[in-house]
């Protein structure tokens, strides 16, 4: 699905043929599929309205108007039959049921980066709350929205919460001014707390491994710390230095070269295909000899939100690899071998990394850097693929299909789908 101002366009994922066209009441600011892909939510925050469309019954429609309370966020519950709307100033979360048309209210949700978290099986929801200048977490049962547990957290200013994939442990971390991560059980018991250092900017990003055995914590000191699920103590820490010295690490460096054109083929005026090949540059990877010096940027100390520390973290679906980005070295992706707890590969790009995401089915990482190329790494090697088309298609984010067979590439105004051929086994 994609939206163009107030129009919602639903296409077939394999052929990109338009299946449905819906017209909303205002400019769409957010869209989200229900878990079973039968409904799609369109939020218009400016007007405080959410519209829901049915794929099976195009004539059916639903409009939720929050009225004077306003609307700042909207999302589906895991069952795909309830919608959670957060009102302006985070006064409350309203839970609307599509089946019974009933409404439930959750008071005092906290305005933080990640204040609502569902377990992977969809049974429980945790909500970060703030009341009387203290942080709390409430855990609800999603089947009837009854409160299961409510407890206060030992945080100065709770910044985010995230469940482990197995739904047994909830991680809650403090603002970057206070290095603290707390681990709670489903019944609200504090299992462990971890603090790496004090008096400096702390946690920037976290990621659970798919097996729930490891918790990776990215910090402003340019290190990733890995906690284990048995003792919740640190197993190891990964540093991101400007020089890669280990001979066991492969460094792929992106290089550009202009294609060579035979003079016999030149004609004036040049054909369209020849003109585009004359002025386009091709990109490929070279394996660099270590030690390799990476481009390091010293952050401006007098600016807010300094470009430093581990801004992106992601585990591969088989738990074997961890991909990281150190914002001080914006052009590099670091890939760590989790079985050996060692640096495995560094991808050094010509432009700053905008986004990366693992294939949901296998250890294959797609990377984009704001140009018209998509880069794909797997343990077998690394490729750079030019997106065909006229004009400048600058890829700023990407998203894998659940099957791993295709990849949506998004620019500011357009999108395209990249189809990958499956290897014959």
UniProtKB/TrEMBL annotation:
Name of the gene: Wrap73
InterPro entries linked to this entry: Centrosome-WD_assoc, WD40/YVTN_repeat-like_dom_sf, WD40_repeat_dom_sf, WD40_rpt
Phylogenetic lineage: Eukaryota, Metazoa, Chordata, Craniata, Vertebrata
Coiled-coil blocks: none
Pfam families in the record: WD40
Natural source organism: Zapornia atra (Henderson crake)
Entry GO CC: microtubule organizing center; MWP complex
Identification of the protein by name: WRP73 protein
